Amino acid sequence: MVPEQLKYTPEHEWVVLVGESVVRIGITDYAQNQLGDVVFVQLPEVGERVTAGQTLGEVESTKSVSDIFAPLAGEVTARNDELDGSPELINTDAYGAGWMVELRLDDASALDELLDGAGYRELVDQG
Amino acid sequence: MTDTSLLLSPLHAAHTELKATFAPFGGWQMPIQYAEGGVVAEHTAVRESVGVFDVSHLGKALVAGPGAAEFVNSALTNDLGRIAPGKAQYTLCCTDSGGVVDDLIAYLVGAEEVFLVPNAANTARVCELLAAQAPAGITVTDQHREHGVLAVQGPRSAEVLAALGLPTELEYMAFADASFAGTPVRVCRTGYTGEHGYELLPRWADTTALWHALLAAAEPLGGKPCGLGARDTLRTEMGYPLHGQDLSLEISPVQAGAGWAVGWKKPGFWGHEALRAEKENGPARRLHGLRALDRGVPRAGMAVLDTGGGRIGETTSGTFSPTLRTGIALALLDGAVPPGTELVLDVRGRSLRCEVVKPPFVESHVR
Question: What is the ipTM of this complex?
Answer without folding.
Answer: 0.78
